[in-house]
Amino acid sequence: MYLKRYLNNLDSLIAAIIGFYVIYLFTAYSGVGISPDSIMYASTATNIQAHGTLITFNKGPLVFFPVFYPFFLAIIQFITRVDPIEAGAMINASLFAAVIFTSGWIMEKFISHSRIYKWLILIAIILSPGLLEIYTFLWSETLFIFEILLFIIAYWKYLQTHSTNALISVAAITAVSCITRYAGVTVVGAGGLMLLLDNKLTVKKKISHILIFGFVSVSLLVGNLILNRINSGLSTGTRYPSVTPFIDNLYYFGTVICDWGSLSKTAYPFAPVITSAVLLALTGILLWKAFKGRINSYENIVIAFAVVYGLFIVISASISRYERINSRLLSPMFIPLLISCTSWVPDVLILIKSKAKYVLAAVAILLMLAFEYSTVLTDYQRYDDERDYGVPGYSDDDWNKSEFIVYLKNHKNLFKPGIPIYTDADEAVYLFTRMSSTVIPHKEPKADVQKFYAQKQFYLIWFTNLYNTELISLPDIMKNKKLVKIGAAKEGEIYYCDGK
């Protein structure tokens, strides 16, 4: 029996190995992609490993992000003695392989199992431009997506027994996901929704299991938020009200779905309708299956998460300001959405008794292959760029071969100890020079701007190739402070404020 189980997942193992190699290819030139978030994670991991402190590169406590992903990197750094940025490519390749294998394991348990369907979905996961972007950067989504799949497996095991021990296992995985990304609350929501719809539970047991699951699953998150409040006075860092209304977020969500589905930009005007149709359809399917008493299956756990995550992103983006809805924000939803939108095909084909089902099956396979061919073209174009210039971000040649970066590294003696350093890219300063600096304030709130202008002496490192319109500009600073240029190279300048 055990041998058969492992043989059934041999195809998943092969797909996982291919996925590992694909990430290796994309990161072979310059290593894992590095963004400002990546530097936050890596620097905190280094401080955890070296000093046992949750301090970032800028000497402040880690608040804007939860603690587990840096802790995960710190464990790897402790074991391997390799900096997370250097080890990032192998970490991500391993996590991507784990995601692929786990996805195959889940599909092996579907009610209407189809080997061809499983292969096509595994290929789609390996080729997904959205996932390849995530797994070529040092981002917490790489671990979070894997945790979502572990939650799905654990919840299915709970459905087999409805035991308290199995429920606590589900809740423990959920708790860790909540301190990997704050969006882990969607895993809490998906688990709570499935418990609420479960017709196999008595009312008394349903209430007790919802309370147990809810308490355990949010316990680590509550602890993380309390720690943040103690360290900084803020639970999740400074958050601003949203500037994008609900209808705009429906549009941005829909454009991501269009890109994932390899639709042309001519479909963008219909993006709000596409978003609404997808979320309403999946919600309707889940409620219909609950009404029919067929809620307890892998497919429905997947659908539940897709619905909760999709609604969470659209609603939260309409309340709180963060980066515009994009492929990265929605990436944890890609595999659940892909499965939710396609898992019904084998079910329908089984119900068809005539030979027409073979024709329909062939059409479905051809459509899937056409979709995957279009993603291959997208992937190849990106690979063609990245094998010559590196993964976009601080890993690519625009930064690694920047004359100003070389100048900064060779002229650190320009900065006298005790005088603060400001910059429009504090992460870049830390990554390439290991000097500590402070990012210049945003235009809002005005109090932060006035506090900055009250500084008597400071250095200013200005990267001229960056265009962050949310920060105060160099001309604005020059209007308010007397700056003396003390160094420069192509793409950057160094100024000193002498107290005026």
Structure description:
With 500 residues, the chain is of the alpha/beta class. It has two domains: 2-389, no CATH class; 402-498. Helix content is 64%, strand content 6%. It has 23 helices and seven strands. It has helices at 2-8, 10-27, 36-51, 68-80, 84-107, 115-127, 129-134, 141-161, 164-178, 185-197, 203-232, 246-260, 271-291, 298-317, 327-330, 334-342, 344-351, 356-389, 397-400, 403-410, 426-433, 446-453, 474-480; strands at residues 240-241, 320-321, 421-423, 438-439, 457-463, 483-489, 492-498. The strands form two sheets. It has a five-stranded mixed beta sheet. A two-stranded antiparallel ribbon has the order 1-2. β6 and β7 (492-498) form a beta hairpin. α10 (185-197) runs antiparallel to α11 (203-232) and α13 (271-291) packs across α14 (298-317). The longest helix has 34 residues, at 356-389. The chain is globular. The model has no long low-confidence stretch (mean pLDDT 92). This is Glycosyltransferase RgtA/B/C/D-like domain-containing protein. Keywords: Membrane, Transmembrane, Transmembrane helix. It comes from Mucilaginibacter xinganensis. The chain crosses the membrane at residues 12-32, 62-80, 87-107, 119-138, 143-160, 166-197, 209-227, 270-288, 300-322, 334-352, 359-377.
